[in-house]
Amino acid sequence: MAAPMPMPLPAAAAPEAAEAAPVVEEREYWDIKLTGFDDKAKIKVIKEVRAMTGLGLKEAKEVVEGVPSVIKKEVKKDEADDVIKKLAELGAQAELE
After folding, report:
1. Residue-averaged pLDDT of the chain
2. Rounded distance, CA 71 to CA 44, Å?
3. Quick one: what percent of the chain has pLDDT higher than 70?
4. What residues are paired with 72 via a beta bridge?
5. Could you tell me the pTM of the whole model?
6. What count of other Cβ atoms lies within 10 Å of the Cβ of residue 95?
7. How far, in Å, CA of 29 to CA of 20, rounded?
8. DSSP H or E stretch at residue 34
9. Sheet holding 29-37, edge to edge
């Protein structure tokens, strides 16, 4: 009787998958986080945060004084960039999160 022939093992698919570049999915919605502001611009920043968020004066003041804090959630990238630009013009620092 002849000895059984060893069967070749199938090639693993992992090397092919490793060669493919990882796909980075662009986020559609962002949160805007107020990270700081100039003391001279505090009142302007409070007014702008109040106008953007619909908060009352007391709540807007608490948000601004409690930096870092998220002022808007689930915002599209274009709108978020406009808000950050507007806050920067007033003397505040904000970032996307």
Report:
1. 85
2. 15
3. 74
4. 32
5. 0.70
6. 14
7. 27
8. strand 29-37
9. 69-76, 29-37, 92-96
